Amino acid sequence: MTNKYYMPTRVILGDDCIVKNSELFTTLGKKALIVTGAQSAKRNGSEKDVKTALEAVGIPYLVYDKVMSNPTIACVYEGATLAKENGVDFIIAIGGGSPMDAGKAIALLAAQAIEEGNLFSGNYEKTVLPMAFVPTTAGTGSEVTQYSILTNDKAQTKTSIVTDLLFPTVTFLDAKYTERLGVVNTINTAIDALSHAVEGMLSVRASNVSDALAVASIRMIMSCVPDMLQALRALQAGTEVVLTLKQREQLLQASLMAGMVIAQTGTTAVHAMGYSLTYFKNIDHGRANGLLLGVYLKLVERVEPDLAGRILAAMNFTEAEQFRELLNQLLGEKEEISSEEIKQFSKMASQTKNIANCVVKPTEDDLRAMLALSFAQ
Fold this sequence. Notes:
Blueprint: E1 10-13, H1 17-20, E2 32-35, H2 40-43, H3 46-56, E3 61-64, H4 73-85, E4 90-95, H5 97-111, E5 131-135, E6 147-152, E7 157-162, E8 170-173, H6 183-201, H7 208-236, H8 245-265, H9 269-281, H10 285-303, H11 305-314, H12 320-331, H13 339-350, H14 353-356, H15 364-374
Parallel strand pairs: 1-8, 2-3, 2-4, 4-5, 5-8
Antiparallel strand pairs: 6-7
């Protein structure tokens, strides 16, 4: 098999990196559309810093702040219409995975006419608006991937637009924007990044390069887990423990590296099952991955013990059950899921492209068993 590595996004890391590198915006265009959610980018200061940087170099901008969690197809078409009507020639996406996913789709739809029925076809013209991304959570890695994941009500799942056109031009990583993130969201997004790194190693497209990034990401996230557990226990006790800025920086960089991994490898059965949990049960994407990741690694451990062993070694574990127990501690009480839902979700997952991407390809029976075990109280 031929391995490839392609990551064309320029990454700028560090405190105040947006304002300090404001001249980079002049290379993207003459008028910007800021794509974000309604509140978080305003609260954490990221939107203010972007506006300050744009004003410093004389670039006018509009703000589209209607992006919801798990953005819809209608949302991105609305944003693209706003961009076209106002002569916008580049996109700045600020936030977690949802604004970044929306920003990519808006950049594509503002540059070319794509009918809704062809949105996920993969057949696009070679044109897209340049993009600058500012992640404010440490989880999705969307700032360095070519995927835009949208809620697809017609298919009753989340569906990806996949094209190299969607790699952002430049990404700014400043950990201070993640400091206001609550304990539960911090855990969920960290598990999302951890899932990306682990799934990258379980992909048929894994390579020595992607595995090296994945192992580094896993180790960095796992080193922060004791403090995340301490913060969670403090929250449950009604007190407060705050992660340090250094820990936030570590999680943000680990998420970046895990994003670089899945840009090369794609994701596996964990995401295939998790999308139904998010669509039908409204379970946060990172949490959904975490509910499933341990049981899938147990299956891999049984079929490909050496592969599972390499992943577990990066976590300082010897058995997949130890990892599953840790995830149970981080995730707490589980949602309820019926036997009919398990049957429905496993059938849907079995029909996805993610299954073919797995080194250990679960059958529909395997998927049912994993979902049942994941939600066993």
